[in-house]
Amino acid sequence: MKDWGYKISIPRIIDLDRSDTSLYKQLVSKVPSAMKCIMCGACSATCTASNHTTFSFRHCHILFKRGQYSRLSDELDKCMLCGKCNLVCTQGVNTRAVISTMRLILSDMNNRNIAL
Amino acid sequence: MSGKKIIIIGGGPAGLEAASHLARQNYQVTILEKESETGGHIKNDMTLFPDFADAQEVRKGLSDRANHPNIELKTGICINELVQEGNQWRIKSDNNEAITGDAVLLATGFEPFDARRKEELGYGIYNNIITSVDFETKLKEGKILTTEGNIPQRIAFLNCVGSRDEKTGNNYCSRVCCVNGVKLAISFKELYPAAEAYFFYIDMRMNGQQYEELYRTSQEKYGVTYIRGRISEAAATFDHKIQLKSEDTLAGLPLKLTVDMLVLLVGIESSKSTRLLAGQNNIRGNYGFAESLGVNRNDYQTTKEGLFLAGTCKRPLSFQETIADAGAAAIQIMDYLEKVK
Question: Do B246 and A42 touch (CB under 8 A)?
Fold first, then answer.
């Protein structure tokens, strides 16, 4: 195959026509408090992991909600489940349960070889 | 002279405004105020948003209008019982004084959120963490100084303290803190143009006339820096400054900032008198506010005949909304008293 020096760049937009956002319904059925999140960022502010890694609860949460699963598993692995975010959340979101449930849902999809 | 008597509980803006309307229509009005002076929370204010009107001048206007031969003002009186007896209403004060009337207007106002309940924000624990109420008091005194007596070179305002907060039980938006915070930030920069002002918010709710313009002016003319993110923790540093932790949710990065002073924009909660008197009459609604027949049905009447509501005993309202609300409540009371004869 001749290398023409071109490559196809993958669109980086959130394409809601194609995104599968049904997993979020699974998440909130297991952790209803996830719906209370107002994206204020207090969780990420207090996060121990966010000081040294790119981890952000708020960011993972919104990516999951919008059906943007690629690289999300790697991001979720950075969480140490220390629960500081749980303490500062003014909305009473069970942040640790949200993280664990997102991990479970994504690994389940992975185990069943369902492309995300 | 109609001979009908109305008792107004609360001598704040709502109570005074309703009283002056009723008195001018020849009703006998008794205002009962728990403090020694009328005016409610604007007693503490320097200016009112969005036009920086002199709060004390506005307050004087209110009390001048309520200075009428048909109005009897009783201050320093605390009500602990409000009961209906047939067509009459009876009130008992804490020193067992009984007062009766044909109608009652509940204008018992609000209370600012007690910031001590948000321990992670350090109010009452560290110096130089104050509330918007404390800040306004300092403004009125003409200077904003740290506990050490210095001009704060860098100040931060935090929105939604005790509002939109499920953990404190206050899920609602207090509505006035955004624009009041903008007003305070501008006042600060007017006083100390060289100082820096930061403003942490979740959403800026500029939902009134001239609010959005004020928000823009604060950025364009006064250089206030707005950061979208809630402060999760505030703690003192060894050199008496306050270190803040937040996320800049627009940049998607955690953020750290050290300031000389932190101002917590506290929300509006139902007052103790509202909770007590509304509770006694089964009109205690969500969050302890008094409940009308419905915002779209009749926002002044209650399920109890002759018991009316005005102002912030119902929900968070701005000063101008309270005044409009009180006028409307006065009309409802007049209609009712015409009807009962």
Answer: yes
